[in-house]
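Journal club prep — side note

Before the paper discussion, L.F. wants everyone to see what a predicted structure for a comparable chain looks like in token form. Sequence:
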Amino acid sequence: MFKTFSSSLLLWVLTSLSLPAQANQQVLPEDKLFSPKFALTEPSAQQQQMSQVLTQLSQYSQLQGRFVQHRHLALLSQPLVSSGNFSLSASAGLHWQQITPFASQLSLNNTQLSQQIADGPVQVISAQEQPALFAFSSLFLGLFRGDEISLKQNFQLYFTGDINAWQLGGVPLGSPLNQAIKSIRLQGNKHINYFELIDSNQDKLTIEFSDVVSSNTVEP
């Protein structure tokens, strides 16, 4: 059961990083994004631009929209594709509702994760039971919050563009993160509209978001 939750948690928590989709953008080739030219090793104009982007991402207290997710696995010739709806609230956490290819629901907050597939039983795991698991998830939730300190502590960051059209990438600085993840990549403008993760097995997860409604209303 815990193994199932571990893989699901990574998958669903990552969705909280990806916010509204806007106009299509050209994806910078990985060999250029992850190069010394774009590494943020000292204060620079790009560093300031990245800080502005992360601050902008942190302003929304509520989000809801649609997603399309592709999982590219080395053992399969075609990606696994799923789609559905999501909502994210600063107070209530993440709710992920998959519609195709089969129905499933997952809810995640700071203390509890619950998952239900179709009409099956609801599985629940608490932060008290698996503190390391929730600590790992908080790292990725930090992207949504624009947590620049956490990002710099855990990733070598790469950035290009400006607040209107940008890409942000990262490679883990050390263990245990680098045992599971090779790299992450995001792109967006006003919001994140694309997320990509390549794991240590070279499998790739991508998520695109659309029709997102956002609000920066302060929740009670």
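L.F.'s comment for the group: The chain has five helices and eleven strands. Keep this in mind when we get to the figures.
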